[in-house]
Design goal:
By secondary structure, the protein is of the alpha+beta class. The protein has a single domain (about 5-310), classed as Jelly Rolls (Sandwich). It has helices at about 15-30, 40-55, 60-65, 125-150, 160, 235-240, 300-310; strands at about 5-10, 30-35, 75-80, 95-100, 170-175, 190, 195-200, 210, 220, 225-230, 250, 265-270, 275-280, 295. The strands form three sheets. The protein has an eight-stranded mixed β-sheet. The protein has a four-stranded antiparallel β-sheet with strand order 6-11-8-9, with no helix packed on it. Helix 1 (about 15-30) packs across helix 4 (about 125-150) and helix 2 crosses helix 4. It starts with 6 loop residues before the first strand and ends in a 5-residue tail after the last helix.
Length: about 325
């Protein structure tokens, strides 16, 4: 298998029983799925990608102004070479930007969810990134309705747990490799995502690979035009006691003929609200599948993982 067959998302209000069944089967088999007819506004997608390219083309010292060395990479800019995969010493060959949720001035989560810096050097940057954040967030809520149904929960079970979730839009730039990369380094080493689910718009260059549980070989995943890759994160894996798998994935270095091209992608990491207690659903615990993970809050788990990947010192 070299890719995943796209699953078509039904129109709002339409019956989605077949979609839910296919989504859950894909998640249980590989931890990933490719969604067609996702409904995101293509104009907003195009503006966000252009804003991303314009930002990463800024001079290094300009971008550096948006790096907070004490911010654990949660908002603003993170320079090339700052992040590594859990358990991997070699750096990932990337730089990235994080846009977080806009909160009301008096919201209690502001203590753990800071504002995103404004970038006046790219005139449309703030509007474009906040616009696509909201598109992703809405779609993520819709997909979680199907996940809840597939798990035998009320359709809106996730709503009050993710409404003000600490979700993040990541603008990713993997620079062109004009010289051979350091030995052992790839664009993104094998890792699992921290969050609930990840939504990923197709990159302009190949490289994404996944390795499901019990499978030795890596599977290349591509998203045809108009589709989106989504995957289970560690928080959903913990919630389901491993019934849904958070799958190892990586972005490998380009082939020699493509090494002169940079790679841009745009994942959205959908998170729980910081104080949500992540504990195994009773329906996912049995004598055959005893509880695997200790209870932990979403923010505690996030901090633990940020330390492991080198962003929180």
């Amino acid at each position: 298998m070299d890719t995943l067959k796209p699953i078509s998302l039904p129109a709002p209000g339409a019956d989605d029983a077949d979609f839910t069944k296919a989504l859950m089967a894909s998640f249980m088999e590989t931890g990933f799925a490719v969604i067609a007819n996702h409904g995101l506004d293509q104009t907003k997608i195009d503006k966000a990608y252009q804003a991303s390219r314009d930002f990463f083309a800024l001079p290094a010292d300009t971008k550096q102004k948006y790096f907070d060395p004490n911010g654990a990479g949660q908002r603003g800019y993170t320079p090339f070479g700052q992040e590594n995969a859990k358990g991997v010493a070699a750096i990932d060959l990337k730089e990235f930007w994080h846009t977080g949720r806009e909160l009301p001035e008096d919201h209690p989560y502001r203590e753990t969810m800071p504002d995103t810096p404004s970038v006046p050097e790219v005139p449309d940057f703030d509007t474009a990134t906040n616009g696509i954040f909201k598109e992703f967030d809405s779609l993520g809520h819709r997909l979680l309705q199907s996940v809840a149904t597939g798990l035998g929960l009320e359709r809106d079970w996730f709503v009050d747990k993710v409404q003000y979730g600490n979700s993040i839009l990541r603008l990713l730039h993997y620079p062109a490799q004009k010289e051979p990369p350091p030995e052992g380094s790839v664009r993104a080493a094998a890792h699992e995502d921290i969050n609930v689910i990840t939504l990923l718009l197709g990159a302009d260059e190949a490289g994404l690979q996944v390795r499901p549980r019990g499978v030795e070989d890596w599977i290349s995943v591509s998203a045809p035009p108009g589709t989106m890759v989504i995957n289970v994160g560690d928080m959903l894996q913990r919630l389901t006691n491993g019934v849904l798998q958070s799958t190892s994935h990586r972005v490998v270095n380009p082939s020699p003929e493509r090494s002169k091209f940079g790679r841009y992608s745009m994942p959205f990491f959908l998170h729980f609200e910081p104080d949500v207690e992540i504990r195994a659903l009773p329906s996912c615990v049995s004598d055959e599948n005893p509880e695997k993970f200790p209870q932990i809050t979403a923010n505690e788990y996030l901090m633990e993982r940020l330390r492991e990947i080198g962003l929180l010192k």
